[in-house]
Specification:
By secondary structure, the chain is α/β, with parallel strands linked by helices. It has helices at about 25-35, 50-60, 90-100, 120-130, 160-170, 195-205, 225-230, 240-245, 260-270; strands at about 5, 40, 65, 70-75, 80, 100-105, 110-115, 135, 150-155, 175-180, 185-190, 215-220, 230-235, 250. It is an enzyme of class 3 (hydrolase).
């Protein structure tokens, strides 16, 4: 019996700037709640913004997972679990030494970049996720009150990244995720051992559930571990092949009502 549905946002629940969150997705959540399901956001997005608004709407009394498991908060944004980012000063120093733009996320929903190292495209990303990015130097932050949990580098040159990467990977205790496009490399670092799968385990403990009672719905690299470990793993039709390979079930594309189909599949199995 599935009692909790954890869900990725982009490409799973959110269908892009034109379509947004389909009406069918909200209708499916309401249908699921009437039949006893609970829901939790489980996203790589920074904490807060539209992701938290959606989480509050779907489960106002429950926790939600952000930053790929590095921060978990109430629907009001109060931190419940934090995995502080180690080697923060070394990571920022590496950015300063090489002129790398970066985006720093905290466990309280803060989002910062250094004045001279503003990441390209950050304003567009702010518009998409709804989490304001503010210009601050590391020395101006109160790290005790706002523990950083994730740092994203935005690197426009592959050659530069290849020279920086060995310095980064030499720092112990970090988890590195890399995303390559023709125009840039986006590389995120969080505490080693943290993932959406650890977020699921935290949710299971919070609700007093076994992982077998949790479903995870997703589409991208950062969903693989959670979909593999969940009692029921569901891949969107637009998911990458590694996600589909570990999923128990595959539904339609996010733009074609795939999320609503996933919730209905959970309900059918429960019935």
């Amino acid at each position: 019996m599935i009692r909790l549905v954890a869900l990725d946002l982009d490409g799973t629940f959110y269908a892009g700037r034109i379509l947004g969150v389909p009406d069918s997705a909200w209708a499916a959540i309401e249908r699921g709640k009437r039949e006893g399901l609970r829901f939790a956001v489980c996203t790589g997005r920074p904490q807060g913004g539209f992701g938290l608004e959606w989480g509050r709407r779907m489960e106002p009394d429950g926790p939600h997972v952000f930053n790929d498991g590095a921060s978990i908060c109430t629907a009001e944004g109060q931190p419940l679990y934090t995995a502080p980012l180690p080697h923060l000063r070394e990571l920022v120093g590496l950015a300063r030494n090489h002129g790398l733009c970066f985006d720093l996320n905290t466990a309280t929903g803060g989002r910062y970049y250094e004045p001279e190292l503003m990441p390209p495209g950050i304003l567009e990303h702010v518009a998409m996720v709804g989490v304001e990015a503010r210009s601050r130097r590391l020395e101006e932050l109160d790290l005790a009150q706002e523990p950083p949990v994730r740092l994203w580098y935005v690197v426009p040159d592959l050659g530069l990244w290849e020279s920086v990467r060995p310095e980064l990977t030499a720092l112990p205790g970090l988890e590195l995720a890399e995303y390559f496009s023709p125009r840039e490399i986006i590389a995120g670092v969080i505490r080693q051992g943290i993932s959406k799968a650890t977020g699921l385990r935290w949710l299971a403990a919070y609700y007093g559930l076994h992982l077998s009672e949790i479903a995870m719905i997703g589409d991208s690299d950062n969903d693989v571990s959670a979909i593999r470990d969940a009692g029921l793993g569901i891949a969107m039709g637009n998911a990458i092949e590694p996600v589909k390979a570990v999923a128990d079930h595959i539904v339609g594309h996010v733009r074609e009502g795939g999320f609503a189909e996933a919730v209905e599949y959970v309900l059918e199995k429960n019935r």
